[in-house]
Amino acid sequence: MSSYPFRIVFGRGLVEELHAFVHRPYVVVTMADLWPMFADRFDAGLAGVHLVESLEVANLELVSDALPACNAIVGLGGGQAIDVAKFFAWRRRLPLFQVPTAMSVNAPFGHRAGLRVNGIVRYLGWAVPEAVYVDFDIVASAPRRLNRAGIGDVLCYHTAHRDWRLAHEAGRTEPQWPYDEGLVAEAKLRLDGVLAALDDIRAVNEHGIRTLMLAHHWGGATFHDSGWNPRHIEGMEHFFFYNLERLTGRHFIHGQPVGLGCFIGATLQDDQPELVLDALLRAGVDVRPEAMGVNWDDAAEAMRTLASFSRQAGLWYTAIEERPIDDAFVAAIRERIVDAYTGWEGQT
Ligand SMILES: [Zn+2]
User: Considering the entire predicted model, what is its pTM?
Assistant: First the structure.
């Protein structure tokens, strides 16, 4: 499936070039902490800047309607700015140019924007950018933990595949998503590529950036390209993240709770949890709850309520339907994570 339309361009000095070819006047969507670093690279073609504060659709509709007259949208930032830029481009039917400043998520390559409706994640809209510009120097200057956490959105294929197979074997796949060996094999190719480049990703060097961003390039677009099928790319590890967000009301660096969810999932599935944990440790991703601003009680609650949350939210059939999470399981997860990260120096 090589026909996905997201043109990805790698290079250097890419933001400096934008003013010369983006349709004028243009609006830049970015974050308050990023804008001072980039403000001087735009010129009189800049009609306005939106600094993202909210992902709530109701708020964004108002902001979108109040944007200055413009002929293009530039998204410049991590996942949030990228998603809001998509939303504006969709609502205003404008050409879109995306510049992800970190490798944290696959959002630059997904058609829909990941937003919130009353605090609940919703993927809506349609935006295919003219191009996605990946600037090696900009990505390398982003906080390391943001970049390294980007493996979470690829590592999740491992748990997703087992979930899909379990559903298949139980006769519980959703009618629109029968098990598809070909899709699994395609995803596995990207997963294996990332697993072979963990040291480069941890170092955020050129090879690491290319490998992870090309995996995101595929992963972001395949949801649509496989008929809005998430089965080969997402499973209970994401459900854990959704549930943790719901319970705590916190915002996370996506790959941290998803990464912890991958370890929980692989353990529950009895499918190479140590491979998952080794990848997280080696790539430099800290999945301890305290590293993401919550605590073990929060994580334990998100595990214990995962099955009921999954059913209430109408999510698909995964390993949590087959093996309940009890206190002994939660204790074992905690013990293994605490032990693995004691004395760990991967964050440096
Ligand atoms: Zn994700």
Answer: 0.95
